[in-house]
Automatic annotation (TrEMBL):
The lineage of its organism: Bacteria, Bacillati, Actinomycetota, Actinomycetes, Jiangellales. SUPFAM superfamilies: Bacterial luciferase-like. It comes from the Bacteria. It comes from Jiangella asiatica. Keywords: Oxidoreductase. This is TIGR03557 family F420-dependent LLM class oxidoreductase.
Amino acid sequence: MPESCHSWCLTGCRPHRPHRVARVKLAWLCSHESYQPEALVQHAVLAEQSGFDVVTGADHFHPWVDDASAASFVWTWFGAVAQATTRVQLAPSVTTPLFRYHPGLIAQAAATVDRLSNGRFILGVGTGEAINEAPLGYEFPGYTERIARMREALVIMHGLLAGEKLDLQGEYYTARTAKLYSPPIGRVPVWMAAGGPKSATFAGENCEGLITSVKDPDETVAKVISPYREAAAARGADTTVMATRWVVLAGDDDEAWEALAAMRGLRAPGRLEVADPAVLRERADAMDRQEILSKYTIVRDLEQLAEAYRPLVRDVGADYVAIQVASTDPVTTIQKVGAEVLPALRDWAA
């Protein structure tokens, strides 16, 4: 068998047919809710060595449960990863520049990481969750206020990242002769997370990219990606879509439950409003185990894992696809996905 193929051939290729490299870029999520930052730096380096194009990390103050978890400061971690890698793009998936951060500070953080990474940074933002804001004393308002805050925040972040000196008084934020004196090397794009048509349209009107989690590809295209692209087209803007999906790689359900130990609260009721991960852990553990497992895509081997992401590279039309895998052995998973899954996904995209 030629070196360009695998012992099992996901691509359906004929013998000796080389894999093609498509324009789609493939990301690895470093789970800050599951592993400590020193381990995640090594995961990021390994992801680059294994062929991933992008490394992402979520910005959490609290994790989803309190008994098997972590929650490090993603901005410090990005500085370390910027120095430990040379090629991969870096992106928070996502940060919330609305409450515990002034949007000007997020612009400064993004510019700093962009300089440390020699222009490899993408700024992913979202409207947030109470678990990251309420523990520090911030009220977590409804969607109407959060999206209004995001509109103001984007004005500040875009302006500062573009080199402007800002003097403005908004309803939520103030800037007084604010300017970045360590500006980014180039243009830092701002991508916004959206799960429905209102946020997707807002992203198309105000941002350079969209981040969306895909459960049903057709529904995601209809309710999120199409509204985003239509709104961007209306202002003559280019579009970029990052599609994400959580997948659990495990040989059986017991192993899947072990792999999900740090993430099981993510599927508990009230996750957007609860501030204490102990509460989410209690709610998750009160649920039937199969109910939680049923809320994830669970695969038994690498072939099934590749198939889980196949719609994201073929049907959704994403420019970036984020591989988000829970497993009991992340190091081996990164290596095997890089060697055996990424080539198949790139071939399908092409």
